[in-house]
Write a structure and sequence with these properties.
Elements: H1 4-33, E1 36-41, E2 44-47, E3 52-60, E4 63-64, E5 69-76, E6 79-87, E7 93-98, E8 104-109, E9 118-123, E10 126-132, E11 140-141, H2 142-150, H3 155-162, E12 167-172, E13 177-183, E14 192-196, E15 200-205, E16 210-215, E17 218-225, E18 228-235, E19 238-246, E20 249-253, E21 266-268, E22 274-275, E23 279-283, E24 290-296, H4 297-303, H5 320-340, E25 350-351, H6 362-365, H7 370-379, E26 381-382, E27 387-392, E28 403-404, E29 408-410, E30 413-415, H8 419-423, H9 437-441, E31 450-455, H10 456-463, E32 468-476, E33 482-489, E34 494-498, H11 501-508, E35 514-521
Parallel strand pairs: 2-9, 11-28, 13-25
Antiparallel strand pairs: 1-3, 3-4, 3-7, 5-6, 5-8, 8-9, 10-31, 10-35, 12-27, 13-24, 14-17, 14-21, 15-16, 15-20, 17-18, 18-19, 20-23, 21-22, 23-24, 26-27, 29-30, 32-33, 33-34
Amino acid sequence: MTSVASRALLGRAVASVLALFLVVGLTAAPAAAAGYTLTASGTSTTTASVAKTLSVVYKYNGVARPNARVSLQKRSGGSWVRVRSVTTGSTGKATTSVNPSVTTKYRFKTTRATSTTVTVTVVPGSWSIAGSGNGHGVGMSQYGAYQMARTGSTASDILRYYYPGATVSTANNPWTSIDVQVLGRYGDPATTTLGLSAGSWRLLDGGETQLATGTSARRISIARTTAGVTARITENGTVVQTIGARPTLYMEWTGTDYWAGTPGTVTVSGAQGAYRHGRLRITSPNTRPNVVNQVVINDEYLYGIDEMASLWGTSAYGGAAALQAQAIVARNYAILDKTEGLKASCDCHLYDDTSSQNYTGWKKEGGEAGATWRAAVDTTRQDGASTVSIVRNASDGIAETPYFASSGRGGTSSGTANNQDAFGTAAQSHLRHVADPYSARAPSNPNTSWTGTLTQKKAKSVFQLSWVKSVKVTARYSSGQIKTMQAVSTQGTTRTLTKTAEGWRTTLGFRGSWADTVTARK
């Protein structure tokens, strides 16, 4: 039996050993973890819809640790939460993909080491911009004109409203022609084929000497060389005549002012319209055949203007006065371009698209309710007095009469635009902002609301920022169109841009620049 003293001595000895063991254990853990490192990478910015790859390299004393299990954790609710485990490869490296919906911190961890924190910053993938209206916003709103006509306004009423201070007057009708380019713009085909629906055609050179003639059975293929334009006449797929390069060719056909006989309609492959009136002038000022329809302004040209629905003028729709107003402003537009002379770029006075006015020729005149549109044009021409209806500005000159589809609303403002706000041009008194409640009331107006999307990629380009965290409209013109937008980057850099209303419309690619709310999307 052990004495009490012996037991006390043994107890002290055991306690000393135990204490020594504990001391050794406490110092052994750091010794075991020493030399182990986890190096994380992948800190970046992304959108919620795009995954981001995170990487980690696991080493011991600089030597890769293959086939090791490493835990990926994320910071959530004030603590670290396990996401998944990854296994290192032969180089000690492991990768994994994360797709957080909000900015999130991540780290990698083993029992022996913990990596530094990496942050994946999440920015909006796009912004949804609630807008309305369509077009540049200056002058006459076509849907507004339609609604005014439906409620009893005359063409003069409409024009005086949308061009405040201007007067509706008359001018002499000289029955002059105008040259409208129907083919030859950038992107148009390098060759074209002309065909006639009925009657006969003839091909003339620049001196108007006849080079060839034919009927609807024959087709004229036009190409360009450095010496001018060439023609190849075919019938049933067989070439029957070839005409060498000429600086200018004219095509005339029966049923026109140039040649009496059976009316026919000419088609030009690659062009948007078809042509019953006038004649075609073919040149080559650029790298492709340039085809111009020469037509009389005050009837033949205006008959082919496809800028307003002809049906609006029928009794069922009640918008005849709107069509008349449209014919008058289209005439003003044409007269001013005729006065400026031929454009060197197209050897024409006007383009056939919205760079000037949308002209489709017989497709408009002979299309649905074409007779209604033609009647509206005729109403604005006083043949007995040899005059036509026009809009005059405050100086009694031919007024500039831009027009567009529909006004919209932005913030608390709405209506048409001051020309200087939309285009950056010198202010004109008859092209100033007016309230436009009529556009929104016009039946079946598809422009009363729409949603545009500004992508992260586009925002980065527009504001010249690496990543955009937020976007907002900070100022609007009196019309409600965007004047100033502001963007903030993930680093806190603020960029503020001011543009014309039309500048914002083209920059953003929206149908109009009346913008209301801007909402971030993932």
